[in-house]
Amino acid sequence: MTKEGSTLAGDYTDLVLDAICVVDAQGTCLSVTGACERIFGYTPAEMAGKKMLDLVHPDDRQRTAAAIDRVMGGYLQRYFENRYVRKDGRVVYISWSASWSQEHQVRIGVARDITQRKFDDQEWVAPQLLPDDLPCWQLSASPRRLVTPRGIHIALSEQDHIVLQTLMRESECVTRRTIVEALGKNFLEYDQRRLDTQMRRLRRKVKESCGQALPISTVYGVGYRFYAKATICG
């Protein structure tokens, strides 16, 4: 490669938003490419040899270790969010996608810094990582109702209650199959358009009742995610 080509490649690398981390079975970082220094504060050379879990915020280590176990068991992890402590001591919020290569015996993770989005758009942050004093949504079983952070009560059908309960119990994306089976239906026989229609109707109902958007995002091709703080009563 020419000197000019090498410089150009370096410029492109600097513009990459994500860091690609390769970690061995013991959790030791083997290499990092992309936005390593921008996200973690360490150069790729400094990252190599570090235990990735040691860089995780202490309050998130148990959750992160559980997610790592799932990945190494063959689960393709998407949209997992946790906090890391940078070299300069600052805390960053990171969204991960990760998978395990049985052939090469390495875990490959793609990390994106979502710290700014934490404040700009709560949809991108896991509920447990939001500020503790943030008003939450409440789901009640008796009577079936949704209480908004502003204290507005919205009556729910049994089906709406089951869907919201299923979504609120998870901090990550809930698959369509999980929702359909929670409704007591056969996923292979269920008309997926009915689920989409119900979600649109539920969003419209909440919007018309309180003027707030229902904090459910659609993860296309996968399912749905409830991205605000919530409590389930009864």
UniProtKB/TrEMBL annotation:
- Give the range the annotation lists for the signal sequence: none
Q: Which UniProt keywords apply?
A: DNA-binding, Kinase, Phosphoprotein, Transferase
The cross-references to Gene3D superfamilies, in alphabetical order and at most eight, read: PAS domain, Winged helix-like DNA-binding domain superfamily/Winged helix DNA-binding domain
What EC designation does it have?
2.7.13.3
UniProt domain PAS: residue ranges: 18-75
Query: GO annotations under biological process?
Result: phosphorelay signal transduction system; regulation of DNA-templated transcription
What molecular function terms (GO) are annotated for this protein?
Answer: DNA binding; protein histidine kinase activity
Lineage, top-rank taxon, reads Bacteria
UniProt KW Transcription keyword: no
Reactions mediated catalytically: ATP + protein L-histidine = ADP + protein N-phospho-L-histidine
This protein's record includes keyword Phosphoprotein: yes
**Which SMART domains does the record associate with it?**
PAS, Trans_reg_C
Name of the protein described by the UniProt record: histidine kinase
Q: Which organism is it from?
A: Paucimonas lemoignei
